[in-house]
């Protein structure tokens, strides 16, 4: 056909506009806001908190509203310095939150088009790839976890830049790659930039190893038959070798699972199993091993007199990564400073790496949209009937659907043995990332345990499947289900990878690879490469399979509904609806059958009427994705975000009647739902979620409304601060068991009560219903003693009407507010001290004993006559190294009522205190001790001492003194200088690249004109 760029461009961007309107019409036209998962309670208030500092002309450095203070710039999800957030500065905040998401959806689409056009794909192929990538379930659903949408939006441009450097030697591409890596990192998704760098390195090694074979443009019909390398992987003996390797891997893994637990040290009572001794050294060992492999590889190449192409490619990629690090240093250094002090970097007790693993059977969702049913409007999902583990799977994206027609085209182009090298590269990326996204489900340990549960055939000594609510290290000393799998290998062999979470995030790379392969598949078909009948036959086979499954589904309807009715799949979306679930699957199969049938017609038409086929293919994919995935976008009216939360109103009224002496904190237990949600369906459960969580100030809803939270859960928490608040089981004494109406000795989830007292907690927002007191998110027993109920008011008389109101409150609202009678002030004075050994690293050694001494208060639940009770209002625990410096201020004077400290926070990064002391002493401030804080006393610089393991202490003389804390992190200053230097270097490199834009490589072809007609367009 003739080259006509206007037609495909017009249709292509028309499809984009229609899909954006269908998916996002409520936020664009109905004054709605994104409301599901983290989009509502996490990112909306967090980004607003950042913008408030910008609006007041301050660097957003510190957030005092959570966890007794934590870095804001150092929080990777805050994306403080990401340039894309200028949207929030030029628009009203509510509109900024909407446009920020839509802009990145549009960026993902445009970037995918640019990537495909750089590979000489036709406009139709580029459009199919862009639609499939941008509006696939795993990408589109990231609107509710915006940092991962940012990473996905920039990813195609990063792949484009890496390809043009490796394939064409373009220096401009290196600058582009550095820019993309920087944008992903600043946008809050450093894992995407990490994985992009790994993919680029693999591509470079593959191309250099094969001498560039397979990089020629796909201009001839027989190019597909060209091997991607000179190696003949089709030799028959390779397959037995691969099978033997798999068998060895399975046997060795299972034997290690049987023997390794014997090397663990003994487990302390009621504590998680200690890790294997070598685990703390595994990341360092992996880094050394990779370094030795690289050196060996380079030495061998030199001895073999190979060309230096790989070294040049590697140097270019390293230079791009270094430039990206320099450009992001102002944010990255504070992030590293923070994350290295969190539980993610703990030497023992590593964080769980397996949540949100993709169950392998969910791959059918790529072919059949929402085949297991849906949530949101009702509980019509039956996926949990397929139980691959005792742990209920967490859903990262409700659907993996990217279009069954797209899957046909992608399978047609998939190749790991022959074809253009970038096609082989994408195919390998798809395989590796798909397997990696399975998380724990690629481990032989999991498979063997599942077989034992299903058939009774077991491998001796490896144990059963992970128990529900398993710790990162099992209590029974055995290995986890996922240990020994592909994601486990990535986490242990790749330096730093273990600090990332959620295997499902690898699906972003899978979606990009499949979408790109689908574009190639369309062009291959239109050019007549290979046999067209094979592609049509594949689509017809999938159509036949779909129709067959649909027929069986209809034929077995009574039996299926009976099994559904027996299922107990209740969730927060309400009771399981068997009829709706059956209907969702039926609709899924009907939609897939229609799409495949139309797809067969489109493919059959492509040879005779390519222009019509192009239009039909774009329209088919757009309609398919719109029908399947538009329901992923959950919103609520913007007015719900603007209303004052109910809990804040109640606390304000309580404070009006009984005001506190100074600032105070609130502890809101992190996660629970009203019981009624599990028993009654709702027409809009997402709205219910948002309204109830907003009303009960689930973090972070209150951070912009004057609320300071004692302890919240987010991306990461300071490791030493977490020691104060981790729950552990305790047995109820006879007296306390009677108080909470349980049997003596009943297990209770106990939160160290003194922790909350010491950290200035005045109010507890906790469930009304305790469950069985053992669940950490409902076990509020610790907060009952020495507290008074503020809301709902206690029953004065136990009349039937009062009891009915109480039951209704528990069922439908399920929260209560308690006021702590034992709250410590925000700051106080002590004249005594106990010294403790200084803490080093992030190991348990040196922490357990001292923290137990600090936290023990002899309350009704934790009462041990063998332990001593120390009063933190009379003494402070100080580091041994500070003993001499504080000797003159800890002479043991008794506390005096005339001594007081007033605390004021002009803004987040500044604390002003007026201290009145009768004798020299230590002023303890219940804010976290963290590097970067400076102190002046009466205008003179003074040292900040670490007291009580995580609080700030100041040595103050007698009299009235003015103390001022300011947050001036050296990491930000140093990072800022590096970033400025990086910007300067970037300017010089731009000038240099303009002069010499390319580095000739042995295989580099002439750089094609991206606007020239492709073979498919030229006909």
Automatic annotation (TrEMBL):
Residue ranges of the TM segments: 6-29, 99-119, 139-160, 172-188, 194-216, 236-258, 278-300, 312-333, 395-415, 422-441, 502-522, 534-555, 588-606, 972-995
Keyword Transmembrane helix tagged: yes
Classification via InterPro entries: Uncharacterised_YfhO
Record key words, sorted: Membrane, Transmembrane, Transmembrane helix
Protein known as: Bacterial membrane protein YfhO
Organism: Paludisphaera borealis
């Amino acid at each position: 056909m003739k080259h006509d760029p206007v037609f495909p461009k017009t249709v292509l961007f028309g499809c984009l506009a229609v899909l954006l309107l269908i998916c996002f019409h409520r936020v664009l036209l109905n004054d709605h806001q994104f409301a599901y998962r983290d989009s509502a309670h996490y990112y909306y208030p967090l980004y607003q908190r950042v913008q408030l500092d910008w609006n007041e002309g301050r660097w957003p450095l510190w957030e005092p509203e959570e966890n007794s203070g934590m870095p804001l710039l150092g929080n990777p999800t805050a994306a403080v310095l990401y340039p894309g957030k200028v949207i929030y500065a030029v628009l009203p905040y509510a509109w900024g939150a909407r446009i920020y998401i839509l802009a990145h959806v549009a960026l993902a689409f445009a970037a995918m088009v640019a990537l495909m056009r750089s590979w000489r794909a036709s406009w139709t192929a580029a459009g199919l790839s862009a639609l499939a990538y941008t509006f696939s379930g795993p990408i589109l659903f990231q609107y509710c976890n915006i940092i991962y949408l940012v990473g996905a939006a920039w990813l195609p441009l990063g792949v484009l830049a890496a390809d043009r450097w490796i394939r064409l030697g373009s220096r401009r591409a290196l600058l582009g790659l550095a820019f993309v890596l920087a944008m992903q990192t600043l946008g809050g998704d450093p894992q995407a930039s990490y994985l992009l760098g790994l993919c680029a390195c693999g591509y470079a090694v593959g191309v250099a190893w094969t001498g560039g074979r397979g990089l020629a443009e796909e201009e001839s019909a027989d190019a597909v038959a060209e091997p991607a390398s000179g190696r003949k992987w089709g030799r028959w003996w390779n397959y037995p070798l691969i099978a033997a390797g798999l068998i060895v891997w399975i046997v060795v893994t299972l034997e290690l699972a049987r023997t390794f637990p014997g090397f663990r040290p003994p487990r302390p009572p009621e504590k998680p199993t200690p890790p294997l001794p070598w685990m703390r050294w595994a990341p360092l060992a992996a880094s050394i091993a990779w370094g030795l492999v690289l050196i060996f590889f380079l030495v061998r190449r030199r001895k073999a007199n190979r060309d230096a192409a790989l070294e040049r490619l590697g140097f270019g990629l390293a230079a791009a990564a270094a430039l990206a690090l320099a450009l992001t240093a102002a944010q990255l250094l504070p992030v590293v400073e923070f994350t290295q002090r969190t539980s993610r970097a703990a030497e023992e007790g590593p964080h769980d790496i397996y949540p949100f693993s993709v169950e392998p059977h969910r791959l059918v969702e790529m072919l059949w949209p929402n085949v297991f049913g849906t949530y949101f409007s009702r509980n019509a999902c039956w996926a949990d009937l397929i139980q691959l583990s005792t742990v209920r799977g967490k859903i990262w994206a409700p659907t993996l659907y990217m279009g069954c027609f797209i899957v046909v085209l992608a399978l047609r182009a998939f190749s790991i043995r022959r074809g253009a090298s970038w096609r082989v590269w994408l195919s390998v990326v798809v395989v590796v990332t798909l397997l990696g996204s399975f998380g724990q489900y690629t481990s032989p340990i999991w498979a063997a345990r599942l077989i034992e549960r299903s058939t009774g055939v077991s491998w001796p000594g490896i144990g059963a499947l992970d128990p529900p609510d398993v710790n990162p290290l099992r209590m029974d000393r055995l290995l986890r289900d996922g240990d020994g799998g592909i994601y486990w290998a990535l986490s242990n062999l790749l330096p730093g990878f273990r600090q990332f979470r959620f295997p499902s995030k690898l699906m972003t790379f899978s979606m990009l690879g499949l979408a790109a392969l689908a574009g190639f598949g369309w062009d291959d078909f239109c050019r007549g490469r290979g046999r067209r009948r094979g592609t049509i036959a594949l689509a017809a086979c999938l159509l036949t399979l779909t129709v067959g499954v649909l027929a069986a589904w209809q034929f077995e309807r009574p039996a299926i509904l009976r099994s559904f009715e027996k299922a107990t799949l209740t969730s927060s979306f309400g009771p399981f609806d068997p009829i709706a679930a059956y209907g969702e699957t039926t609709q899924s199969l009907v939609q897939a059958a229609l799409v495949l049938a139309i797809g067969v017609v489109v493919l059959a038409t492509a040879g005779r009427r390519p222009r019509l086929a192009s239009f039909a293919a774009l329209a088919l994919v757009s309609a398919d994705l719109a029908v399947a995935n538009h329901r992923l976008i959950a919103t609520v009216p913007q007015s719900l975000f603007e209303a004052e939360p109910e809990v804040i109103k109640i606390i304000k009224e309580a404070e009006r009647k009984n005001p506190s002496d100074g600032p105070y904190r609130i502890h809101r237990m992190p996660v629970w739902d009203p019981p009624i949600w599990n028993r009654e369906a709702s027409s809009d459960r997402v709205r219910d979620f948002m309204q109830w969580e907003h009303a009960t100030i689930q973090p972070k809803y209150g951070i912009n409304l004057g609320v300071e939270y004692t302890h919240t859960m987010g991306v990461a928490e300071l490791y030493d601060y977490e020691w104060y608040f981790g729950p552990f089981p305790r047995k109820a004494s006879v007296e306390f068991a009677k108080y909470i109406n349980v049997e003596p000795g009943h297990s209770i989830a106990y939160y160290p009560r003194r922790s909350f007292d010491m950290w200035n907690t005045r109010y507890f927002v906790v469930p009304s219903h305790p469950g069985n007191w053992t669940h950490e998110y409902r076990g509020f027993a610790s907060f009952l003693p020495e507290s008074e109920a503020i809301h709902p008011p206690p029953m004065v008389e136990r009349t039937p009407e009062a009891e009915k109101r109480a039951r209704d409150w528990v069922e439908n609202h399920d929260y209560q507010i308690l006021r702590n009678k034992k709250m410590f002030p925000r700051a106080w004075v002590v004249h005594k001290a106990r010294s403790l050994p200084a803490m080093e690293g992030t190991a348990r050694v040196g922490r357990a004993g001292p923290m137990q001494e600090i936290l023990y208060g002899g309350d009704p639940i934790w009462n041990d006559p063998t332990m001593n009770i120390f009063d933190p209002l009379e003494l402070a625990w100080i580091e041994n190294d500070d003993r001499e410096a504080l000797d003159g201020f800890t002479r043991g004077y008794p506390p005096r009522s005339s001594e007081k400290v007033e605390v004021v926070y002009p803004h987040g990064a500044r604390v002003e205190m007026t201290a009145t002391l009768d004798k020299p002493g230590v002023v303890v401030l219940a804010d976290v001790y963290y590097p970067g804080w400076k102190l002046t006393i009466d205008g003179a610089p003074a040292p900040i001492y670490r007291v009580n393991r995580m609080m700030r202490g100041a040595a103050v003389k007698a009299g009235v003194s003015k103390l001022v804390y300011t947050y001036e992190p050296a990491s930000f200053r140093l990072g800022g200088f590096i970033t400025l230097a990086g910007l300067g270097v970037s300017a010089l490199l731009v000038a240099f690249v303009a002069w010499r834009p390319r580095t000739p490589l042995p295989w580099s072809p002439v750089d094609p004109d991206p606007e020239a007609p492709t073979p498919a367009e030229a006909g």
